[in-house]
Specification:
It contains three helices and 20 strands. The protein is mainly beta. A seven-stranded mixed β-barrel has the order 12-19-16-17-14-13-20. It is elongated and about 65 Å long.
């Protein structure tokens, strides 16, 4: 997003008419800056962003729009190719003559000059990714175009009237026009975990308690992390830790005994003990969990903790 920019300044762009509840610019984040106190940030569902870029033959790190619970409305300046991935949502394109058509999910779609794209609320999942061929070409900050909501780094959140320039189209052309991928799960979500670096700060039965019953995703959840409600995890030690490094997927437990699952914009350090860490391949899955949805944890490789009736 270019502050104060007008559509005429760019050959191709997206003009934001309505941003919905939360829309941010995201790529795969900032690498190798933790020693400076800068988190990685980037797409909460990295697999969805990569898929969107592959469909358009973009570099996999090209910047897209991450749209939480739909509501986005944008207008094309110049002829564009776009795709939607992540949480499937109702989507329509209205051309300059007022004709409206629906568009598919995980498919390559044409967005003609002057056409308007509207996203509805996804019936399942939380975050939808809108990619455009050429990528969202806003200025980089520390090597990334990602918006970090915790630190404030990166482009501002799009607002009505924001102009998002689109970069040059890549030399390669899309090899497929549709990707048949599974939708985000709407029932109980199973996530694999490994014991955390401070699991010994908890009672011997705490890790089993974490995996025994579902936890509910509370409304107090965002790109920083998900606050969960479920069985209380009892500590075996008093006091607090000195701050230490955190990673996406860390399950940090404050004195309340209710865990928080860190996501893309998590703090670089934290002082509460981490009982377990969600395996990297399931962090994307966690990022699509909606408030009110239930989550179960399974220690990776321990099938005794799985209730297959709930899968």
């Amino acid at each position: 997003m270019v502050s104060g920019a007008t559509v005429r300044e760019f050959r191709r762009a997206l003009v934001v008419l309505a941003p919905g509840p939360l829309t941010t610019v995201q790529d795969l984040g900032r690498r190798r800056h933790s020693h400076l106190g800068v988190g990685r940030s980037g797409a909460a569902d990295r697999g969805a962003l990569r898929l969107a870029n592959r469909l358009l033959a973009n570099p996999e790190n090209a910047a897209c729009l991450e749209v939480t619970l739909g509501g986005l409305k944008v207008r094309a300046s110049g002829d564009l190719l776009v795709t939607l991935t992540g949480a499937p949502c109702p989507a329509t394109v209205t051309d300059a003559e007022g004709r409206t058509r629906g568009i598919g999910h995980a498919s390559v779609e044409r967005l003609p000059d002057g056409a308007t794209l509207r996203l509805g609320v996804p019936p399942r999942g939380l975050r939808t990714y809108l990619a455009v061929r050429g990528g969202i070409d806003v200025p980089e900050v520390l090597g990334s175009r990602a918006t970090d909501l915790l630190s404030g780094l990166g482009p501002e959140r799009p607002a009505p009237g924001s102009v998002l320039p689109v970069g040059p189209a890549p030399a390669e052309f899309p090899a497929a026009d549709l990707a048949p991928v599974p939708e985000p799960e709407s029932g109980v979500l199973m996530l694999d975990v490994i014991p955390g670096p401070r699991h010994d700060w908890f009672t011997p039965g705490a890790l089993a308690a974490l995996c025994a019953e579902p936890y509910e995703v509370t409304p107090h959840s965002d790109r920083v992390g998900m606050r969960l409600r479920g069985p209380r995890l009892e500590r075996a030690r008093d006091g607090e830790l000195p701050s230490e490094g955190m990673v996406p997927g860390a399950l940090q437990v404050p004195p309340s005994g209710q865990p928080t699952l860190f996501l893309a914009d998590h703090p670089v350090t934290g002082g509460y003990p981490v009982i377990a860490v969600v395996r990297d391949h399931h962090v994307d899955r966690a990022a699509q969990a909606r408030p009110g949805q239930r989550i179960r944890f399974r220690v990776a490789g321990d099938r005794r903790l799985v209730d297959h009736r709930r899968l």
